[in-house]
Target: GNAT family N-acetyltransferase
Amino acid sequence: MLTTRHGVRVLAAADLEEFLALANQDPVVNVFAIHRAQTTSLEPRWLGGEMWGRFDGGRLVSACHVAANLVPVQAGPEDAAVFAERALARRRTASTIVGPQDAVRAFWDLVGESWGRPRDERWDQRHLVIDAEPQVAPDPAVRVTARTDLPALYPACVAMYTEEVGVSPETGGGSELYRTRVLQLISRGWSFARFDRGELVFKAEVACATPDAAQIQGVWVPPHRRGEGLAVAGMAAVVSLVRDRISPAVSLYVNEWNAPARRAYERVGFRETTRFATVMF
Model:
C-alpha cells in the first residue's frame, strides 16, 4: 500500500528487480545504492535503514536510500522534495546526505532548517569515471593489501579520514568499528597500497562495487611524500587492478577545491560525468 499522497513507500525484497532496473539507468552514479540493494535484498534489518520508492501510475520512478547515508537514486528535484517531506515526519538518522547535486540541494532546501546545522557542506564535487586503461604507466609496487599490512595501513586510514572529513573515525570510541571496516576491505581484496621500506606511501580502497562499476574512496599519500607523483602512478595501478579483478568502470568523486587531486585523476584518464554534493553532520 502507498503510504503518502505522493506515492512513496518503503521498498522490500519483492521490489528488488524493479529497483535494480531503475538504478541501472545510471549504474556508475548509482553504484552505492545498487551495491546496497544487491547485498541486502532491500531488507531493512540488513540495510540498517530503509529504501524508499516513489511510484507514479504503479511504476517506480525514483528512490532514496535512508540509513547512515541518505542517497537519492534517479531522483529529480521534485522527487527529492517528496522524499524530504517524508523525512521531516521522522527523526534524522542520516549522518551524511550525498548524491547528485540537484537532488541533494532540493532535499536540503526543505529539511535544512529542521535538521540543524551540518558539520560541513560540499556543494561542488566532481563525479569522475574511467572505463579504459589508464593514460599513464601504473606503479608496479601498488598491490592488494593483506592482514599483515594492518599495522601500517590502519593509521594511514585514520589519518586520511580525519584529513578528509574533519573528525577522526575513532571519535566516541569508534576505533574498533573502523578497524573492522578496514579489515573487511582487506578481506574482500578491495584495499590497495604501496609501501616503501615498510612505510605506507600511497593507498586507496574500493568503497562499493557491482558487476558494472566500482567506486574508489580513501585515496591518500602522506603529506611529506606529496608532489612525487605517487598518487598519479598509484591511481593508475588501482584502476588497472580494479578493472582486472572487480569491475570494468572505476568511479570516484572529488571536491572542486582539491586541485592537486583533480589534476592527478585527469592525468590518469578520469573524466567528469556529473556533479555531486555532500552534507555531513
